[in-house]
């Protein structure tokens, strides 16, 4: 029986990985809430740009640096949104990826197809990463456009925090580095969110834990007596994105926060894999 | 095919590795094994430092670890405990650049040989000041460990034991550790001052101040990264960016007022030196820093004695008493030494 | 019963399409399945019957490798599950615990997503396979509507379509007629018959006994996590039903005389029942007539499955 079967049917144990990733990509990008969120994200840099132009007084921090220096906007927008909004998008994607599928009963279908459990983790991690990349790109691209069109100034150049002037090309390079770094931080958030997602059937639990966790991290990081905790907290490095605006770029914080993000990815990814391989569906 | 449970264990292993990695990231890069260096006497080491040639072009990161325990002074957050870093570039021929990053801004000072440019990203201002070639950027004497160490050695030799106490690795370079300890007769809060001296260039790399009663340094300033060699000449030029406000620096008010101030009185010598200055009320602002007018009347604790009354400010390495009649006594000594000096 | 099943299995020389041996599944303090041995013979249509909470779905989930048994082993198409489930599952179509789909996608898009994950489906065949499956469950007209707007029956049909995307060696349908109208129920019956005719093994769990009786070759009855009866449908219908029913007004006399010769007999309704193992029917009738008992009717009882099911599952207090 087995001999006959294997002679007549293509004997595969799993669908091609590319096809699985393609299906996941279509699913992630067709989800209405993903699209709504991306649309809202596109508005944020525009709102900041309009705010800076209307307010017409230089405040402190990165927002202040945008005035008359539009190319700071994409970096400032990414840094600001990394605090809560971008992690929200990633946490939502991760919540839908496993907990949401379980709630809809579709996780069972994937396991029965079968998509191997290991491949399923890869597929889901890919989907979350896509959301992180697309969300970051939307903010960066809209930020560049709004910076040049709405804010303008600095003759199409970027004035760094160090007081030097960079041409458009190099400025784009800096925005690209900031985007890449942001995706790295978001991937860490996504990995942890995915791990939580693997333990529940309620997507809201994932959202609440991730956002609650980020807020708790932020509070812990602000308590002087808990200084020693800082190197363990993912949020500690969240402000390092502004370092791309220095000339020369200071890589210390960017590097250490990326390493920290990699550790969180290993923790989240390891737990997700372990749980998905053993969990009942 | 390895069992699914086997792979699940691998997954947990990866997670644990991630947690361990996080722990390793949190541990400061441990000092490597003490390098083997030919022995040298303290006198030779100090002499070689004083005679050392200019190290030439370099780029360095200077880190200041402040655990002085200064009370919070309103308006001067920099004085609080913590770590701050700055980047220094020198072309070895008088031009230099200093970058002091802060949260989401940066102050940059560039000395291009003829003009010192000071840029502050917070308000996008550039202050320029023409200088002669000898003059250094205003903060160089504070952040340059070389000057700081040399001064400490010269002042403290008479009343201290000076010894070379082993070796250390600082900013990846082998260094001798020169240790100055107060003689037992000295009444001071300080336990010892250590200066790490580059074994090759004889450049002080790190200054560490240790106070009695604590194994952690009260103050440590030194290079955390140091790289010798030709630097990009572009680092030593500055063009005010579009949109910046450029102003010519006025003469520093301090320069004009300094001669008017009475010379401070020095009581004692060595480690238990006490400096007593008179602070006219109008000039009180000079104590706290250039920018602000920190209100010193709210910090410290009330003290009084035969010498009068005032406020005592304690830190890990020094004590100061500001009397109600406008005198300021300060030194690396316990409060009792200050009140004795004030009573004289 | 077991003997005959064993003989037939041996005669066919085919391993069972699915089997569990001594499986037990405990959730916290609840014992969902308590030591079941069951084989689903290759080529059979096995109906799994049992009241709600009897462990049917848990047993199916263990067979499909979705849940690991607390103890015991499960096997699917010759592969141990759950550890080697991925080798068997491409050949298995399943509709378990209701259809699971994404509400914001149309039926066709949902099915395309499922098809993309099917190992045995070449990428070029996906479009056609999806169309055929939709056609087969009668959902072609509603294929491009969002799943959100589907009726319960349409959702069930889409779930069925997902199980039928690829030619299967085993199809597992958990309550397939849930929410279906009579036409839908007929469609399910037709599809099961087609699968059976095509040589596939089908495992159907259902509370509709008529469905099982109409379409199944084998039956397994579960109660409180244990298997109370299993085997070929025809054998179950014949056997183990407890004897000869005699309708008579003189119950006491009849019982007395039967017990006199050592036969087991008891009162039931307006007559008595003589248990299996006693004297053959003609002798019983002759004995009763000799004892002056009026025998209105004597017949060997042939239970309908429903009767069997009711008796097996309602015995417990």
From TrEMBL, chain A:
One of its GO terms (cellular component) is plasma membrane. Signal peptide: none annotated. It holds the Pfam family ABC2_membrane_2. The chain crosses the membrane at residues 35-55, 75-99, 120-151, 171-197, 204-226. GO terms for molecular function: ABC-type transporter activity. Keywords: Membrane, Transmembrane, Transmembrane helix. This is Membrane protein. It comes from Pseudonocardia sulfidoxydans NBRC 16205. The lineage of its organism: Bacteria, Bacillati, Actinomycetota, Actinomycetes, Pseudonocardiales.
UniProtKB/TrEMBL annotation, chain C:
The lineage of its organism: Bacteria, Bacillati, Actinomycetota, Actinomycetes, Pseudonocardiales. InterPro entries: AAA+_ATPase, ABC_transporter-like_ATP-bd, ABC_transporter-like_CS, P-loop_NTPase. Keywords: ATP-binding, Nucleotide-binding, Transport. This is Multidrug ABC transporter ATP-binding protein. Pfam families: ABC_tran (PF00005). Belongs to the ABC transporter superfamily. One of its GO terms (molecular function) is ATP binding. It comes from the Bacteria. Residues 18-249 form the ABC transporter domain.
